[in-house]
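Quick check before the chapter quiz. The format below is the same one you will see on the exam, so make sure you can read both the input and the output lines.
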Amino acid sequence: MKISTNWLKEYIPVNHTVEEMANKISLTGIESGPVKLGEELTGLVVGHITSVEPHPDSDHLKVCKVDVGEAEDIQIVCGAPNVAADQYVIVAMHGAHLPNGVRIKRGKLRGQESNGMICGLDEVGVPAKYMPEEFENGIYVFDEPQKPGEAVYDLLGLKDQMIDIDITPNRADTLGMRGAAWEIGATYDEKPSFTEPKLINDKVKEFSDIDVAVENKDLVPDYLIRELKDVKVGKSPLWMQRRLWNQNIRPVNSVIDAANYVMIEYGQPIQAYDLDKLESNQLTVKFAENGDKLNLSDNDKVLDQNDLVVSSGNQIIGLAGIISSDVAKVDENTTNVLLEAGVFDGAHVRKTAQRHDLRNDASNRFEKGVDNGIVTEALTRATQLVDQTDSVKEISETIIGSYIEAKPTIIKGSVSHINHLMGLELTTEKMVGILERLGFNVEVDGDNLTVSVPTRRWDMSIEADLVEEVNRIYGYANLPNTLPAGMETRGGYSPKRELNNKLRNVLLGAGMDEVINYSLLNKKEVDDFNAIDTEYTKLLHPMTEDHEYLRSSLIPGLVRNIAYNQARKNADISIFEQARIFDRPTGQDRPNEVEYISGAVSGNVVSDSWNTKAQKVDFYYVKGLVEELLNNVNADSDFTFVATDEYSNLHPGQTAKILANEQVIGLVGKLHPNYQKAHSIDDTFVFELNVDLLFNLNKKSVQAQSAPKYPSISRDLAILVDKTVENGQIIADIYNNGGKYLKDVNIFDVYEGKNIKPSHKSLGYHLEFLNPDDTLTDDEVEKAFSLVKDSLVQKFNVEIR
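Here is the expected output.
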């Protein structure tokens, strides 16, 4: 909201610079900044065109004689299509400065001398989209005669000084000039004075050509209209137009401009309708039917049963609290007008405006809240402005669709308690004075205060709000400085956060890149990877169809990242995400948030170089990443990988569940070829771990050990085994039978093909034995090695090679 200091002067004395005012307002808790319009402008005056002749060497240029208050008229060549004799216009004199560094100089245009420039509003700093449409492609022409040579800055508000207030949602009372005047006045110990709008009594009649009904009074507690008959719609006065375009509102006509002016003045949106364009004499505020259309100049909006509308018969004339339709728009041919003022439910207005992409100044005010105590007065003020400009013949009494009497909020507090909370010792008189500066009525009973808060401050309801207001106006800078007292809290991360950081650092150290994705997915993506088999959680009001459901896996987001990069020729990708998924057990309303870490790798993990060959990612590379993560969990658990085909979008021959003490904690595998094709990606391997389950595992104690003094003994084992037997089963059995001195087992060879029995594979293992306290003998190692071989033969029917 931009607060014009010239406008503000109508309510309170303004004797300070905008910089000083903005700074002081910011110190009360409302962020503000100074805005000075047209600082660069110089040399702009009123000119009176006394004659216009065609340019001898151009079919569109005109040679104009212009009175600029000097002894003789000056000659200016102008190409605007609307230039004509006897117009009062803006003239930039020789040496004038315009926006964007433009400087006007005397010169010749096609041989004719030109001593300045006749300007349009956009050329002197008013954006084209906010100036009157009739001047959008030409020069600006004053409606009334002006004094030639007079500076135009004040006439057009080109050098208005403003305070730009950044409104927080709870302070929507300052979205109107009158509310801002209370706020700024309290800052400077000034009470604003307002003139109550009044109508000419002889014009106000008891008549009504229209009936009003409100079907949803819980969403529309106040709905008032006035009927204005025999209106001659024209242009609004220049003082009103300049205030509107400086508020980024385009002047349209006297009626619409009056409605917009009142919105800025009071913070109360007003709508205007052409009474004669209505389909019936019944005005109804109700929910739309599915398929109803709101006709707008740029495009039509298809409505549904959640949209609150203003209708006349079957005609939709407005979206309640947001925008009016073009079907009943007030124009220069309008003679009978309806003015509407109401209070609409903020949450409903916000959702509707967001759903139809129609957020504007009116919806912004209803979203944050309007003062239901000034609805009647604002409607009267809009009526008064139309009557002052267009001289209305007859004005109806206020026609009520719904109305709830606005009552002030009563808050009780005590001087001593407020002082205690602030750490001050303000006197009762000082505290009461601060509250009265804000327009509050205060009754004092000893130490107790009873404060009547006007309806414009609907953000206040409890004593703590009084404390805040006293604090703000007294000045935060004036509060005494004290050092905090109490026990100090040791900083640091929680144990779970430390585990998260450790896992993250492991993957970063492995060369993976971290990504952050949206928590919301479409239904297909949730279906694709619902590995935890949870109930879906759908948003009530999703932004788009692609963001309807809370994710139950991080993998769909990573797949999106892979597809995005590979579509841009970035084939070698290694990424991970550490975030929360949402698990909603059957019958539970709210989902549980569960910490997960997931990764995806595609392309080469080793690049082609002069001394290395490119190496593509495979299952075992990604499994190695997972094992490194599990090693850093420091859990006293047995982690196993069990082959599975239960995940439909993972390759059935290259996928495994990850178990900790027989509990599933994650998965690792390759995306199914059909899934990869559907998403236009190359071979990609993924993994996912439940960090919360990992954190809850029992921790093992780690003790430092001296380096072994005695040498180890190694043995190699080659076996022929059926293809269905997994490597993990073999290694587990070797450990079970290798004795206490078996320290490590590694597979070093896998072979399938020629000279191998069908449906079999050849595996080679390296076993290492070590006794940290003595030298191992060959007999001890051979005994353990024999037990290993015997067990493998018995359990897996292997052939020792």
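If your answer matched, good. The longest strand covers residues 42-54.
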